[in-house]
């Protein structure tokens, strides 16, 4: 079949503009002939998540890690698990040990969003005393494993339905847990129908423990005696789909440059040399050192931060177009008053966001913060673990504030009511609020689950209880400014 002539330059630009961003990126990486065209067409992304060793573009994640390849049958479970998750998340030193100090180094273009305690970490080095203990532990485990194998071949089939799970666990524990093994007890257990399933489970647990200890000791001996490490190392790039959980390892390369150099290279291939800023609807940076490339420019609509919003905004400023502000929405997670002082709510870019969402838990005086916010819309899902949800008195203070400060039509404040409060408690809370409103605002008008209050600015403040659809905060108590006659 004749494929026909290639697309013209202008036609290709049009096609790329409407193509899925991940398909477009992979085509540009693998097809040099379209690379220059792809760079001049605006790239649009719905959600961009940034972490120290991965990025997620919409529902596709690109992860860089260190893959440890052990000889057949010698891979310890922890390394096997790490390999399955896209490899180790840090570099290795010449002896194969995790090089956390190098991983914590800041390089040009890095954005440091580490939490305070992670910026001052001290890493433990294994010592010879610990090694002696592990050698002794390995000897004991090997004896137990030999004893388990002495009863013959291991049968790995599923246990019969008639077998007692409790008895299987007891037999497994007999072989694995550190107490004395006796021929008498072994013979007694061997006559039970649960013996083989219990023995097979014990064999697997002991085998895994032996592999872990052997790997630890081999690596120690390699460093002490100048021997090769017991595994080969590769840098692996993994592309995975966050929705389908499908994974595809796209590239293995010999571990000859740092993992972070490899990640920076990936970022450059995707984001460098673009004619226009990358259009991002929602930007989500996570805590840690985010390895960005200096050529990245973004025009964003929303941001979600999980810690220290003032620090994140300052660190990300060089990469975000000033025309992005004011943001349509800013979502801030506040969980620890020691890292998130109330002063962050004076941050200009936070206060200018059209919609501010506060999610958190912490011993902070929330009422003064709520009264001082002037965002057009504010939604809170915040609980103080000393006092619980907001009190009726505090909520009435907010209502009085909203009736007297000239909030514009469409302004709203919504407060999430905890799901762990039963429905009766939530009913009592909002009924108490409504009763107070009727007492304090004689001109208020009530309806089903709402009250309307005239304000001093010839508008109406509607206070209502609404279902949220959120599992943790199933109901919202909502304040909304409406035109006077609505």
Which class best fits the helix and strand makeup?
alpha/beta
**What oligomeric state do the depicted chains represent?**
single chain
Largest beta-sheet details: 15 strands, mixed
* Strand order within the widest beta sheet: 6-5-3-2-1-7-9-10-11-12-13-17-16-15-14
Number of strands: 17
Radius of gyration: 30 Å
Q: What is the mean predicted local confidence, pLDDT?
A: 86
| End-to-end distance | 65 Å
Q: Give start-end ranges of low-pLDDT stretches.
A: none
Classify the beta-strand content into a percent band.
Answer: 15-25%
**What percentage of residues falls in helices of 4 or more residues?**
25-40%
Q: Per the principal axes of the C-alpha atoms, what is the gross shape? A: globular
Tally of contiguous helical segments? 15
Q: Would you summarize the structure shown here?
A:
The chain is α/β, with parallel strands linked by helices and 486 residues long. The protein contains 15 helices and 17 strands. Among the domains are: 1-41; 65-235, no CATH class.
């Amino acid at each position: 079949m004749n494929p026909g002539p290639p697309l013209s330059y202008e036609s290709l630009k049009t096609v790329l503009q409407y193509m899925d961003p991940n398909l477009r990126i992979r085509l540009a990486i693998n097809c040099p002939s379209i690379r220059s065209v792809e760079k001049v067409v605006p790239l649009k992304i719905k959600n961009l998540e940034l972490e120290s060793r991965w990025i997620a573009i919409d529902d596709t994640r690109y992860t860089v890690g260190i893959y440890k390849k052990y000889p057949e049958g010698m891979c310890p479970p922890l390394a096997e698990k790490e390999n399955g998750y896209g490899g180790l998340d840090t570099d290795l030193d010449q002896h194969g040990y995790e090089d956390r100090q190098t991983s914590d180094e800041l390089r040009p273009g890095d954005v440091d969003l580490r939490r305070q305690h992670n910026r001052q970490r001290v890493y433990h080095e294994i010592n010879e005393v610990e090694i002696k203990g592990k050698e002794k532990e390995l000897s004991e485990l090997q004896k137990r494993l030999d004893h388990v194998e002495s009863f013959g071949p291991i049968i790995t089939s599923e246990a019969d339905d008639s077998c007692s799970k409790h008895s299987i666990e007891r037999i497994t524990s007999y072989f694995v847990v550190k107490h004395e093994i006796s021929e008498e007890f072994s013979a007694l257990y061997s006559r039970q129908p649960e013996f083989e399933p219990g023995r097979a489970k014990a064999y697997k647990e002991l085998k895994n423990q032996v592999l872990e200890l052997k790997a630890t000791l081999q690596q120690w001996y390699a460093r002490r005696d100048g021997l090769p490490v017991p595994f080969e190392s590769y840098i692996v790039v993994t592309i995975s789909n966050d929705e389908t959980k499908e994974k595809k390892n796209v590239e293995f390369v010999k571990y000859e440059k740092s993992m972070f150099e490899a990640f920076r290279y990936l970022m450059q291939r995707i984001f460098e040399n673009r004619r226009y800023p990358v259009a991002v609807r929602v930007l989500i940076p996570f805590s840690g050192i985010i390895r960005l490339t200096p050529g990245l420019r973004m025009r964003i609509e929303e941001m979600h931060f999980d810690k220290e919003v003032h620090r994140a905004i300052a660190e990300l400023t060089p990469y975000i177009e000033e025309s992005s502000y004011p943001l349509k929405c800013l979502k801030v997670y506040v969980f620890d008053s020691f890292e998130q002082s109330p002063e962050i709510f004076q941050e200009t870019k936070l206060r200018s966001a059209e919609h501010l969402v506060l999610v958190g838990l912490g011993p902070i005086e929330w009422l003064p913060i709520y009264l001082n916010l002037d965002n057009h819309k504010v939604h809170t899902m915040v609980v103080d673990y000393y006092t619980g949800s907001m009190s009726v008195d505090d909520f009435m203070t907010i209502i009085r504030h909203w009736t007297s400060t000239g909030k514009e039509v469409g302004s709203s404040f919504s407060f999430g009511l905890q799901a762990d409060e039963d429905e009766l408690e939530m009913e009592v809370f909002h009924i108490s609020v409504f009763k107070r409103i009727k007492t304090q605002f004689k001109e208020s008008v009530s309806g089903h689950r709402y009250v309307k209050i005239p304000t001093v600015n010839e508008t109406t403040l509607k206070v209502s209880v609404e279902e949220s659809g959120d599992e943790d905060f199933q109901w919202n108590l909502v304040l909304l400014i409406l035109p006077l006659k609505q």
